[in-house]
């Protein structure tokens, strides 16, 4: 339903210097509390992805696409309860909200709706980050205003834009580094890199209809950031032969998400791929960079699949919010990603060994579905050998 509304076209903006640092190892201070992202002592780091909450005005906002007997008691508060249940069940190290956090058309006060939507994450004291979808700016705040409000909330590691970049399209392009286990040889290295990008809302080019896309200025920032992180990881101390794995989060799927059918993905595809009508080449940019192992989006609520293309897993989270179009009887859902480190010969923790994922359904038991390995270090090594002509 959300995508059937008449789009409000916002003009492109160019940005100046922003206040916040991107560097993980000098953590951002949020209301005096420093947050850092680091693998746990058990060698794991868990990310909860929440896509398309579509929050509006709370208990007065009705649900969409649920059974008639659910309607009288269903509201935005069901979305809030689902976030709380997921946090309690999974105890993630980090929470990512991948756009359409609020449904602007129905949100009376954008700031109030945003604060309410993120309240479960704020109350949990778990670090979290958010990016924008195509509906966040359709209330009382501009796209820039929404991102600035998010950055001002407690416990968030969200950034308006890169501090070192003077001109870049969109709002909410930034990266975060996940440090190795405290006291390990990787303590001062980022073992896992997270990239966040603003995939826009709607095209501002009259000749190109439909949704927005990731622009050249954003891709240039990504290329430079990825290159910098790869160099740091492959330098002494503990110089590595290849880059640390990277995960990328944005809202609107790439055209390449249409490359799959039921034979080569895990999950379901129940609607078309609502990407931009042009291909800006960002998938190729990620392949060339060589560090990206997974891309995670939202936007198409009835799709929740992961499929691998040229070594990169392209994954939907599936619709989360109750004031968002869905399908009665098809549970709202969330995606979890777990990165695990390898044990060293000395009994410590080294580089990332594997990245796994699963989804949880908002049913009585928070049922887990579609568990799969997205990437593993050993499997990647075998693939590289085959590509260079190994007889194996």
Question: How would you describe this structure to a colleague?
Answer:
Its cofactor is Zn(2+). Homodimer. Belongs to the metallophosphoesterase superfamily. Purple acid phosphatase family. It comes from Populus trichocarpa (Western balsam poplar). Residues 45-301 form the Calcineurin-like phosphoesterase domain. Helix 5 (216-233) packs parallel to helix 6 (282-289). With 392 residues, this protein is α/β, with parallel strands linked by helices. The chain has 7 helices and 14 strands. Residues 4-34 and 382-392 have low confidence and may be disordered. Strands 5-4-3-12-13-14 form a 6-stranded mixed beta sheet. A 6-stranded mixed beta sheet has the order 6-7-8-9-11-10, covered by helices on one side. The chain has helices at 76-90, 110-117, 119-124, 143-151, 216-233, 282-289, 377-387; strands spanning 29-30, 33-34, 44-50, 94-98, 128-131, 174-179, 190-196, 246-249, 292-297, 306-309, 312-316, 333-343, 349-361, 368-376. It has a single domain (44-376), classed as Purple Acid Phosphatase, chain A, domain 2. Helices cover 19% and strands 22% of the residues. Strand 3 (44-50), helix 1 and strand 4 form a beta-alpha-beta unit.
Which SSEs are present, and which pair or pack?
Layout: E1 29-30, E2 33-34, E3 44-50, H1 76-90, E4 94-98, H2 110-117, H3 119-124, E5 128-131, H4 143-151, E6 174-179, E7 190-196, H5 216-233, E8 246-249, H6 282-289, E9 292-297, E10 306-309, E11 312-316, E12 333-343, E13 349-361, E14 368-376, H7 377-387
Parallel strand pairs: 3-4, 4-5, 7-8, 8-9, 9-11
Antiparallel strand pairs: 1-2, 3-12, 6-7, 10-11, 12-13, 13-14
């Amino acid at each position: 339903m959300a995508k059937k509304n008449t789009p409000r076209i916002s003009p492109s903006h160019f940005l100046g210097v922003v206040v916040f640092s991107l560097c993980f190892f000098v953590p951002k201070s949020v209301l005096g509390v420093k947050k850092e992202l680091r693998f746990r002592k058990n060698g794991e780091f868990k990310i909860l992805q929440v896509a398309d909450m579509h929050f509006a005005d709370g208990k007065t906002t009705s649900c969409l696409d649920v059974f008639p007997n659910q309607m009288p008691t269903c509201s935005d508060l069901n979305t809030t309860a689902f976030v709380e249940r997921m946090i309690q069940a999974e105890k993630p190290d980090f929470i990512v909200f991948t756009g359409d956090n609020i449904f602007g058309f129905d949100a009376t006060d954008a700031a109030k709706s945003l604060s309410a939507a993120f309240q479960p994450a704020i109350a949990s004291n778990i670090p979290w980050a958010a990016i924008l979808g195509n509906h966040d700016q359709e209330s009382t705040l501009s796209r820039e205003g929404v991102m600035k409000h998010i950055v001002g909330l407690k416990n968030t590691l969200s950034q308006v834009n890169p501090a070192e970049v003077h001109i870049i399209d969109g709002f909410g392009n930034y990266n975060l580094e996940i440090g190795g286990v405290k006291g390990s040889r990787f303590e001062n290295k980022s073992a896992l890199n997270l990239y966040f990008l603003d995939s826009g809302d709607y095209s501002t080019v009259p000749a190109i209809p439909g949704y927005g896309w990731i622009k050249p200025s954003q891709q240039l920032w990504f290329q430079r950031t990825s290159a910098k992180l790869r160099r740091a990881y492959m330098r002494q101390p503990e110089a590595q032969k290849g880059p640390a794995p990277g995960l990328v989060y944005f809202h609107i799927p790439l055209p390449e998400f249409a490359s799959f059918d039921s034979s080569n993905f895990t999950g379901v595809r129940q609607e078309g791929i609502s990407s931009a009508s042009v291909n800006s080449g960002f998938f190729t940019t990620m392949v060339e960079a060589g560090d990206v192992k997974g891309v995670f989006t939202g936007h198409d609520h009835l799709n929740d699949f992961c499929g691998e293309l040229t070594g990169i897993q392209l994954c939907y989270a599936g619709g989360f919010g109750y004031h968002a179009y869905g399908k009665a009887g098809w549970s709202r859902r969330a995606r979890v990603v777990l990165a695990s480190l390898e044990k060293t010969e000395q009994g410590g923790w080294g580089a990332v060994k594997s990245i796994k994922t699963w989804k949880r359904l908002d049913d009585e038991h928070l049922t887990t579905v579609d568990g799969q390995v997205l990437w593993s270090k050993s499997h990647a090594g075998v693939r590289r050998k085959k590509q260079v002509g190994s007889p194996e």
